[in-house]
Amino acid sequence: MKTIVSVLGLASLIALAACDSKQENQVENAYENQADALDNQAANMEAMADNLAGNAEAAAENAADSLENKAEATREAGEAAADAVENR
């Protein structure tokens, strides 16, 4: 019984993977990589903010928040671009 369930599960995963085109995945991955880079910049900015005081800390935190928002917008744009590729 375990073998049958495993085979059915594997077949389902293969069928699901076939739904995404290679081009769609490439588009989505490109945007995801860009968003990850922005997230890393935001994390670095937050780490620097921890070492600052007063207004400088607030400014650095605001910059980090801005980068995080940009990363999220980039992810959403990537999903939209991937959907556009898929729907062509």
From TrEMBL:
Domain of life: Bacteria
Chain spans, region Disordered: 53-88
Compositional bias segments (type: Low complexity): 53-66, 79-88
Biased composition (Basic and acidic residues): 67-78
Keywords, alphabetical: Signal
Signal peptide feature range: 1-17
Name used for this protein in its record: Putative membrane protein YqiK
